Every structure is written in structure tokens, then in C-alpha cells.
Amino acid sequence: MLKASFPDVEILDGQGALVFDGPLQGLRFPEKLIIRKSMEFFRDPEPCFIHRSAVVSRLAAEIDLLLREQPELSVEALEESCPAYLGEYAGARRLRVKRAE
Questions:
Q1: Which helix (DSSP H) or strand (DSSP E) does residue 74 occupy?
Q2: Is 41 part of any domain?
Q3: 75 domain residue, yes or no
Q4: Pairing assessment for the beta strands 18-23 and 72-74 based on DSSP bridges
Q5: 2: in domain
Q6: Pick from 58, 1, 69, 72: which is nearest to 27 by CA?
Q7: CB atoms within 10 A of CB 10
Q8: pTM, to two decimals
Q9: Consecutive H or E run containing 70
Q10: Count of domains in the chain?
Q11: String of b and e for 36-51 (b: at least 16 CB within 10 Å)?
Q12: Angle between the 31-42 and 49-69 helix axes, to the nearest 10 degrees?
């Protein structure tokens, strides 16, 4: 079985300052979102490590699909608002695939 390969991404605030720089699968998602998605996917209100990992992987895959269509997104383009997906990153306004240096 092949493991999904996700791009490196950057999160920028409203002034264009870097808030996160790293692999897409390394994003920290808010606990409320993980619980809600765990309920949606598995009917599990207290996700174990396996369910938690599956939720995070699925969230990363959803974002990856969006970034393939458009390499830079405003947070409003995500399924939910900024606090839902990127609430762990204060001031997050844009998410983009990291440009090769």
C-alpha cells in the first residue's frame, strides 16, 4: 500500500507574515474539529489514536485536493471557516503550497 504524499504548505496571516511552514500532514487541527469529524466518520466521540490519525489524514487529503486545483487559498475557500480548520494558527488567512526555492 502506498502512503499519500502531501506537499509542504505555508499559512500566512492578514499581513502576509508566515504562521506555519511545514508538511501538510503536520498541520495541527483544533480538537473540536477532530471530535466532530470522528463522530461523522466513525461515530466515535472519544477517538483513539487510530481514529484520530484517520481523521487528520482525511482532513489533510481534503485540503490537498483543494490545493491541487488552486495552489493558494483564502481560508474561506475551505469547507469550514478559519477557526474550524486552522484555528490552531492565530490570524491565519491564506494557505498555499510552499514554493520551491
A1: strand 72-74
A2: yes
A3: yes
A4: unpaired
A5: no
A6: 58
A7: 16
A8: 0.82
A9: none
A10: 1
A11: ebbeeeeebeebeeeb
A12: 100
Q: 69: which 3 cell numbers? A: 486545483
pLDDT tens digit string along 21-35?
999 999 999 999 999
* Measured CA distances, 8 to 20, 35, 42, 64, 71 (Å): 10, 25, 28, 10, 11
DSSP string, 2-62: PPP---EEEEEETTS-EEEEEEGGGPPPPHHHHHHHHHHHH--SS--HHHHHHHHHHHHHH
Please report the pLDDT score of residue 82 as a whole number.
52
Other CB atoms within a 10 A radius of the CB of residue 21 amount to 12
Euclidean distance between CA atoms 87 and 52, whole angstroms: 17
pLDDT (tens digit per residue) in 6-65: 899 999 998 999 999 999 999 999 999 999 999 999 999 999 999 999 999 999 998 898
Q: Has residue 46 been placed in a domain?
A: yes
Terminal Cα-to-Cα distance of the chain (whole angstroms): 31
Question: Taking Cα atoms as reference points, which of 98, 89, 96 lies closest to residue 73?
Answer: 96
